[in-house]
Each structure stands twice: as structure tokens, then as C-alpha cells.
Design goal:
alpha+beta; Nucleotidyltransferase, domain 5; Ribonuclease HI, Chain A; 6-stranded mixed sheet; 3-stranded antiparallel sheet; 7 helices; 9 strands; 30% strand; globular
Length: 223
């Protein structure tokens, strides 16, 4: 049974281009009290912003405060609940002997979580969870250099004011990736021309904001 008295920390992060300018967001919900936090970095990756969001969220908890950390990042969930134990035993090396990426943030997360009764929970992104949708909007706005009015107080407003349906673009966009550089295009010929003859490059047509962000995140996770 869900413990409604337990603090909930919703987190999300992302960047434009991967690597590129990024943003992160955290929402802390204690009973009915709701507070938003967010920030940006000029050059980062999707995964680092997901981790930064969780790290900032944990920093908002009191010593010993029980909380559920809720994220749509499988990388974050698997890293903090499964992989990190082996990495630490092997001196922050993966099974193939390579250095663990983002070690600085993994170590910081490990320290921030120490002594806290935490539950890590994964949810699907862009699937109608109001707090996750709000986190996504905050992080995406910060990543694009925009300003966000961070709210606090009675959190009931979010359930009536946030649309749960995905945003459908008036016209499809096309994404291309060449040697890790992701760009947006208005037409398929433009996208196709960029990748022509480049080994390992790819293009994808996206019709919604959710598909757009999910594609960029997935391509980043492939690295």
C-alpha cells in the first residue's frame, strides 16, 4: 500500500543536442505541500542532467527523511540501485575494465543517499503523470535558456492545469545524428542530405514533443 505521508521527489533532466545546453528539475511533495526547483548548465548530457536533478532533489531532504524518488530515467534507476555496487567494488570500473562515465555525479549521489531511507521508482516518461510532465517542462525550458516561474504551496493546481496528453506538432520535425551531433530539420530531404554517406549516422521523423525528447534521450543512451 502506498504511504501517502512519505515525501515524494519527482526529477527530470535533459539537454539540447546531447551534449549541449541542459536543464534539470525537481519537485518535492510533502503531503499537500509542493515546491519546484530547477537549473541549467551550458554544456552537458541528458544522463548528467537526469543525475543532477536527482542529486539536487536528495539535497532538499532532511537527514533521515524517508522519500520516494520518482524518475523516467532507466539509466539513473539502474545505476543507483544495481550497477553502482559493482562499480565501487571494482574501483569505479565497468565489467569491461573501462572507467565509469559520470563518476563524479555517481559518487555524489551515493553520498547524498547514504543513511536516507529511499525508494527509487521508475515511471514511463510522457505518459500523463502530472509531476513528471511539469518536471519535463521546467527542465526543457531551462535547457533552451528560458525563464521558469518555480511554484510552491498547495500542489493541487498541477492536476487541473497540466495537460496530460502529449503535444502534437503542427508539422513533423526530423532529427539527424552525425558523430554524436544531433540537429533538427524541417524536411526529410534536408535531414537525409546531412547523413548521406556518413557511416553510423541516422535520421528520424518525430510528430510529438514526447517522441522528440524521447528520441534525443534514447540516442544519448546509446553512447
Amino acid at each position: 500500500m502506498e504511504n501517502f505521508l512519505k515525501t515524494k521527489v519527482f526529477t527530470d533532466g535533459g539537454c539540447i543536442g546531447n551534449p549541449g545546453p541542459g536543464g534539470w528539475a525537481a519537485i518535492v511533495l510533502r503531503g499537500e505541500y509542493y515546491e519546484e526547483f530547477g537549473g541549467s548548465e551550458p554544456e552537458t548530457t541528458n544522463n548528467r542532467m537526469e543525475m543532477r536533478a536527482a542529486l539536487e532533489g536528495l539535497g532538499l531532504l532532511a537527514p533521515g527523511e524517508a522519500a520516494v524518488v520518482i524518475t523516467d530515467s532507466r539509466y539513473l534507476i539502474d545505476g543507483i540501485t544495481k550497477w553502482i555496487h559493482g562499480w565501487k567494488r571494482k574501483g569505479w570500473r565497468k565489467s569491461d575494465g573501462a572507467e565509469v562515465l559520470n563518476r563524479d555525479l555517481w559518487e555524489a549521489l551515493d553520498k547524498a543517499a547514504e543513511g536516507k531511507p529511499l525508494e527509487w521508482r521508475h515511471i514511463a516518461g510522457h505518459s500523463g503523470h502530472p509531476e513528471n510532465e511539469r518536471c519535463d517542462k521546467i527542465a526543457n525550458t531551462f535547457a533552451r535558456g528560458g525563464e521558469v516561474e518555480l511554484k510552491k504551496g498547495d500542489g493541487s493546481w498541477i492536476y487541473s492545469s497540466m495537460p496530460v496528453a502529449d503535444e502534437v506538432y503542427e508539422k513533423p520535425l526530423y532529427l539527424s545524428e552525425v558523430k554524436g551531433d544531433i540537429r533538427e530539420h524541417k524536411s526529410w530531404p534536408e535531414c537525409e542530405a546531412r547523413i548521406k554517406g556518413v557511416k553510423g549516422s541516422r535520421c528520424k521523423k518525430v510528430k510529438t514533443k514526447g517522441e522528440h525528447i524521447a528520441t534525443i534521450a534514447a540516442w544519448g543512451d546509446d553512447k
